[in-house]
Amino acid sequence: MSETMTVKDLDQRYLSMFGRAAGYLPQDRETVDAWHRELRRKADEDPDATFVPSVRRLADLLQRDERLRNRVQVTIDEARRLNPEGVGSIHQMLYSLNHITGIAPEYHKDPKKRNFFPMSTLFCYMMAVKSGWDLFRDRPFNDALRDILKAWCAFLDSEESTYVLHKGDDGWLGESAAKDFKLDEFEVDWDHPHGGFTSYNAFFHREIKPECRPLSPDPDAVVSANDGSVANVYWDVKREDDILLIKDQRYSLDLMLDGYPDIGHFEGGNVLQSFLSGANYHRWHAPVSGRVEYARVVPALMFSELYSKEVDLSSGTLSQGYQANVNTRAIVVIESSSPEIGRVCVVPVGITEISSVTLEVREGDVVERGQEIGYFSYGGSSMCLVFERDRVEITVPYGKQGQVTDNGAPIFVNAEVARRTA
Predict the structure, then answer these.
(1) pTM over 0.70
(2) Which residues of 398-419 are buried (b: 16+ CB within 10 A; e: fewer)?
(3) Cβ-based neighbour number of residue 189 at 10 Å
(4) Which residues in 301-340 are b (16+ Cβ under 10 Å) and which e?
(5) Which of 27, 54, 149, 261 could make a disulfide contact with 112, Cβ separation 3.0–4.6 Å?
(6) Strand pairing report for 381-387 and 290-298
(7) 117 Cβ partners below 8 Å, 6+ apart?
(8) In this predicted structure, what is the pLDDT of residue 245?
(9) 94, 58 in Cβ contact below 8 A?
């Protein structure tokens, strides 16, 4: 075991992972371990495997950079003490990454056997150990993983990925999946063999039926940018905070709004953060009408979670405030047409497999409240709305400030989440 971690600790840490909470990882570790064993066996049978270009570039990087190569191997070795049958060498890790770039996530009726996040499944033990905290914050390693994720995303954007879109028991259009993912609310062509979708990603960020997400008619309402559930509300947010050394969920404006030149507008304001599960609608809408003052995607970390020796009992949501500061994310600042509301910043945050954060608006665009402004490609994710000080009051239930939850109040695109103060 790593450090003094017991089997009970390991089980609880696995239960706390974001992908497990979001329903993307198997509900029990035995499915993970079996998947590791099979990939390890295949890798050992193919020591001279040919890798796709992005995986080859990571292999070359590790060959050149002895420091990074040693760091990866130390993490693998430490993780191997948690799972002796897991990936045990750099070749096995590279082989597994190469395998992932050519597969689409397969639905499974049994939650215990669902493996929708294969890279998180591959890295789950590495992410659970202290050396993994350092490794997944290593920029060259992170950038190489982003390159591999882009290759996987390209496959998920291709027609080849539609092989999992069928009406069989383990198809994403089957009866069980349709119930789990509320497909009756979405635009699906049931007469088409693949539901009318040209790729797996097209299915993942599918359009929702407008009547299922009506726009709040109240002109004073700030509406939700996304479907999900409330994870955290934080007031009086500061420009700077040492967020890497704390266990609560403070936000650093300087980090979260990386590069936005007028951060002072949001100093002392508040943050509403929500959590998106796999069943949620993964497109985002404008919370207010107004002019897009700033729009940018920040490529950053992906597999880094808030590390502590204590187990995160919040089922993965405890890391979300931290991830809003350091992960790949978009920053969209809308200057509201209502002077009383002021500026609202929309921050969609990618977590683990989500490296594709797509903006559909540019600086200078005028948007209407409820208008689509972007989407996530495959994966779980999080969303922050940042408000100026004393401009709005949060109207959805959120419990105690800064107390992160994984079962917060549900929110829905276009429905009220806040309103301007009187």
Answers:
(1) yes
(2) beeeeebbbebeebbbbbbbbb
(3) 10
(4) bbbbbbbeeebbebbbbbbbbbbbbbbbbbbbbbbbebee
(5) 27
(6) unpaired
(7) 19, 24, 25, 105, 352, 353, 379, 380
(8) 44
(9) yes
